[in-house]
Structure formats: structure tokens, C-alpha cells
Automatic annotation (TrEMBL), chain A:
The keyword Signal applies. It comes from the Bacteria. Residues 1-17 form the signal peptide. Residues 63-77 have a biased composition (Basic and acidic residues). This is DUF4097 family beta strand repeat protein. Keywords: Signal. Residues 56-78 are annotated as: Disordered.
TrEMBL record, chain B:
This is HEAT repeat domain-containing protein. The lineage of its organism: Bacteria, Pseudomonadati, Bacteroidota, Flavobacteriia, Flavobacteriales. The chain crosses the membrane at residues 90-109. The keyword Repeat applies. The keyword Metal-binding does not apply. Keywords: Membrane, Repeat, Transmembrane, Transmembrane helix. Coiled coil: none annotated. InterPro entries: Anti_sigma_zinc_sf, ARM-like, ARM-type_fold, HEAT.
Length: 264, 253
């Protein structure tokens, strides 16, 4: 009896601690296209729906804060928020959600100044395309579908992914850790100036192409063919090598940043 | 009246074809001018030589010989007519043989043609596949299409146009990057060079800008100097892109 009570208490405490969330069924959806300019965290779950939660701003718990919030809520009563680039259909989360065929577009309507990061839970096998705008960053974990990520200054972090991956950033760091490497179509990771850190399993079959004016560090054994009598052309120095007799193309390019390729 | 004018009239004078007035003029002049008299004498003797020459006439043999030769030629040129015995069998054999030859010939020709069309259709199939890949909704698949497009020749304008289309309009920066790289292999084509320059002016992704700057420097496209200088002047251009311009611009100047 005591145990049950404790458990009940525990569960209720968890429930109460959770933020409000928005759910959307993903039946028939093969790809989710997300656009938001904040810190985006995606987690893979064995579900068939999208779950969206908002990181609320850290509240300074000064007295009167609650009253202030209440007052705000009072003001909003009977009114709905409208946004310049779409209709909010995510119960007040400030997202426009539209379906086109088997693609679901999830677009942030609020400016990045009103956001403090968002968290999405999606099915493990879902194909995902994320654009984090100018300052947003993306971190995701555990997806086995195709992932496309674009940021400008925010970092890109991926863990336990299989690819195909298409990632691009201007100055954000890229850090990708592969569980295994899908052989279906190319993996391309590009950045203008930042460093790129990629870890792949030792037995990965791949055709590597690494291009940078920085330095490439790796613990793989490269059999780079010696090019005799060819002048080095600035910016077009690329390292081409086959891993385990070749396979899917892995293309990593940073014009200035170092490339780290790790064996797992 | 000059001597030369008179001398010009000598031929007419000797032929007696001059007018009365001119004739009397020449006579009048000849009375007083020894030089012209000399000239006239020379001309007279010359004309006399011409007159005394007999016209050469061909010998009578010539005509006879010619006629003989003609008759011989006519005889050899007319086909000999040989009466054939009507051989019904031989003709029907010929017909059968001819029809067999025609059938076999047609068959071989058809086979050859189908080979050609097969090769063409394989090429078309490949082209269709690549064009379809380039339109795929997955960025990675589009990149696959772009790298497959490298195998096509310069003459394949459909492929090149599709690549240019990717370079201009693809939403994914990595696809545009790959398209730029593949297009740089077709840089002998003027539309490709134009596209690369235009793209440098319009693309806002810094990775793509840097790639284009490097390509344009590599293919020595002098027309890109202007757009590179624009990038340098533009306040919104990131520093590291300007650095790339500064690195590559000197090689074009």
C-alpha cells in the first residue's frame, strides 16, 4: 500500500513537472520539415506522433510573478494570437502545421526572441529536414531515417544516426556520431569555416572525400594515392580514400576548419 | 597635227577606209614628213607580208581519216545483241534467291537498328533516372543525381540545364554545392560559366559562395571579377567569404 502510494505520488509529481505539450498524429507522414530559429532538440521515440514541448524562459521567481502571469492570461481571454506568416494551429504553441501529401511542414511563427528552445519527439524512422534559421542550433539523437539540417551560426549535433545525412552550416560546429552508415545515398557535411567532427564505425564501407584548407585528423588508415607532379591548387585540395573497399559516398567539406574523422 | 595622230590613221589609210577629210590630211602630212613616210613604208611592207601568206588548208586525208575513226567508234559502242534462250527455271530461281537475300538483309538491318535504339534507350533511361533523381524530395538523393550527372557529356543539354536549375533553385545548400562542383567539370560551356557567375551574385549561403569563388578562379573566368568585387563591397558578406575573394581574386587579375 505504502509502495503504491509512493509510486502514485512519484507519477503525479512527474506529470505536474512536465510542461504543456502539443501532440500531432503522423499517420501517412514520411517526412517532417521543421523551421524555427531557436535551439531545437529532436529525440527519437517508438511512437507514431509528433510531440512538441516548449522550453519556457527561466523565471525569476520574484513575488508577484504569478499574479503577473495571471493578469496576462486574463488579457488574452477570448482573443487569439495572429502571426504574419501563417495560422497558429498548434493550440497556442505558435506553430503552423500543414500537411502536403506525405510531408508535414512545421513552421515556427514566433520570433526567436520569444523562444527559449523547443523539444520535439518524433518516430525513429521518420525522415527529417530542419532549418534553424540564423541563430538556431540543432541537436538530435537516435534517428534512422534521412536527416537534413541547415544552420547559420548555430551548432549541429547528431548522435546515434545512420544517415543519409545532409548538413550545412556557415560557422557553427558540426559533430556527428554514426551508429552505422546507411549505404543508400550520399552523406554530405559542409561548413564554411567551422570544424567538423565525425565518428563512424570501423567497418564502414565508404568512398571518402574530405576537402579543407585546414587539417584533416583521423585514426583511419588512408591509402591516399600519391599524385606526382600535380601542383596544389588553393582550396581544392581533397583527400580521396576508400574505406573497406569502398561504398557509399561520404563527402565532408569545410573551407577553413579542421576535419576530425574518428574510428569507433 | 601630230605625227602620232597621223600614224594612228595609217591602217585606215592603207585600207582606204578613212573619210575624205582624213584621207587628204594624211596625204598632206606625208608630203612634208619623212619620218611618217618611213613609218608608212614599214607598215605597207608588213601588211604585204601578211597578204602574201597563204591560208593553210588541211589535207584531204584528214576528213577521210576522221570518218573512218567515227565509223569504228560507232561499231564498238553499239551493244551486241545476243539472243537468249528463254530459261524459265533460271529466272524463278533468281526470284527466290533475291527474295531470300532481301529477307535476310531486312532481318540483319532490323537487328542492327534495334541495337542502335537499344543503346539509345539505355542512355535515355539513364538520363531519365538522373533527371528524376534531381527532382527527388530527398536532398541526399538529389545529391546522388548530381554526382551521377558527371558521367554525361557536354552535349547533353538537358542534364546541364537540370544541373543549372539545381544550382539556382535548390533549397538545400549541399545540393547547390554539389551542382556547382559538377558544373565546373562542364566549364567549357558558355551557359555553365554564365550560370556560375550569376549564382555567385545571387546565392546567400557562404559555403556555396566560397565554392563558387574557388571554381571561378580555377576556370579563369575574368567576367567574375566584377561580382567578386561587389561581394567585397557588400557589408553583409561575412569576413571569411571576403578572405576567399582576396585569396582568389589576384589569380584573375
Amino acid at each position: 500500500m505504502k509502495k503504491i502510494l509512493i509510486l502514485l505520488l512519484f507519477v503525479t509529481s512527474i506529470l505536474s513537472a512536465q510542461e504543456k505539450e502539443f501532440k500531432y498524429s503522423l499517420s501517412g507522414i514520411k517526412k517532417v520539415v521543421l523551421a524555427s530559429g531557436t535551439k531545437i532538440v529532436l529525440t527519437a521515440e517508438n511512437t507514431s506522433e509528433l510531440v512538441l514541448t516548449d522550453n519556457k524562459k527561466v523565471r525569476n521567481n520574484h513575488s508577484g510573478h504569478e499574479d503577473h502571469q495571471k493578469e496576462k492570461a486574463e488579457k488574452r481571454k477570448g482573443l487569439t494570437a495572429v502571426y504574419p506568416n501563417g495560422k497558429d494551429n498548434s493550440d497556442g504553441f505558435g506553430f503552423s502545421i500543414t500537411k502536403e501529401g506525405s510531408v508535414l511542414y512545421v513552421t515556427d511563427l514566433k520570433s526567436m526572441y520569444q523562444r527559449n528552445g523547443i523539444n520535439l519527439t518524433l518516430p525513429k524512422t521518420m525522415n527529417i529536414s530542419v532549418n534553424a534559421g540564423n541563430l538556431g542550433s540543432v541537436s538530435l539523437e537516435g534517428f534512422t531515417g534521412e536527416v537534413e539540417v541547415a544552420t547559420n551560426v548555430g551548432k549541429i549535433e547528431m548522435k546515434n544516426v545512420t544517415g543519409p545525412i545532409t548538413a550545412n552550416t556557415s560557422v557553427g560546429k558540426i559533430d556527428i556520431d554514426f551508429d552505422k552508415v546507411s549505404q543508400t545515398s550520399p552523406i554530405t557535411i559542409s561548413s564554411s569555416v567551422s570544424e567538423i567532427d565525425v565518428a563512424i564505425p570501423a567497418n564502414t564501407k565508404a568512398d571518402l572525400e574530405l576537402r579543407t584548407q585546414g587539417t584533416v585528423y583521423t585514426n583511419f588508415d588512408f591509402d591516399t594515392p600519391k599524385k606526382k607532379g600535380l601542383p596544389n591548387v588553393s582550396g581544392n585540395k581533397s583527400i580521396n580514400s576508400k574505406l573497406n573497399n569502398g561504398g557509399v559516398k561520404i563527402y565532408i567539406k569545410s573551407s577553413m576548419g579542421n576535419i576530425y574523422l574518428r574510428k569507433k | 597635227m601630230k605625227c602620232t595622230d597621223i600614224q594612228h590613221k595609217f591602217t585606215g589609210f592603207l585600207n582606204k577606209s578613212l573619210s575624205e577629210v582624213a584621207n587628204s590630211e594624211v596625204k598632206e602630212h606625208l608630203k612634208s614628213c619623212t619620218n611618217c613616210n618611213k613609218e608608212l613604208e614599214e607598215m605597207k611592207s608588213f601588211l604585204a607580208v601578211l597578204d602574201s601568206q597563204e591560208m593553210e588548208t588541211p589535207s584531204a586525208n584528214l576528213r577521210d581519216n576522221f570518218n573512218k575513226m567515227l565509223a569504228q567508234e560507232i561499231e564498238t559502242a553499239t551493244p551486241k545483241v545476243i539472243q537468249l534462250k528463254p530459261q524459265q527455271d533460271w529466272i524463278s530461281y533468281l526470284k527466290v534467291a533475291a527474295s531470300i537475300v532481301i529477307i535476310i538483309g531486312a532481318f540483319l538491318f532490323g537487328k542492327h537498328q534495334s541495337n542502335i535504339t537499344q543503346i539509345a534507350s539505355v542512355k535515355n533511361e539513364n538520363q531519365k533516372q538522373v533527371l528524376a533523381l534531381l527532382e527527388n524530395s530527398s536532398a541526399s538523393k538529389r545529391i546522388l543525381g548530381v554526382s551521377d550527372a558527371e558521367e554525361f557529356t557536354k552535349k547533353d543539354t538537358k542534364i546541364i540545364e537540370a544541373l543549372i536549375n539545381r544550382l539556382f533553385f535548390d533549397k538545400n545548400a549541399n545540393v547547390r554545392l554539389a551542382a556547382a562542383e559538377t558544373l565546373s567539370k562542364f566549364s567549357s560551356e558558355i551557359i555553365v560559366r554564365d550560370a556560375l557567375i550569376k549564382s555567385l551574385e545571387t546565392d546567400e549561403n557562404s559555403s556555396v559562395q566560397i565554392e563558387l569563388i574557388q571554381i571561378l578562379a580555377k576556370i579563369q573566368e575574368k567576367r567574375a571579377i566584377e561580382s567578386m568585387q561587389k561581394l567585397l563591397k557588400n557589408e553583409e558578406t561575412p569576413l571569411y567569404v571576403k578572405q576567399q575573394v582576396e585569396l582568389n581574386l589576384p589569380s584573375l587579375l
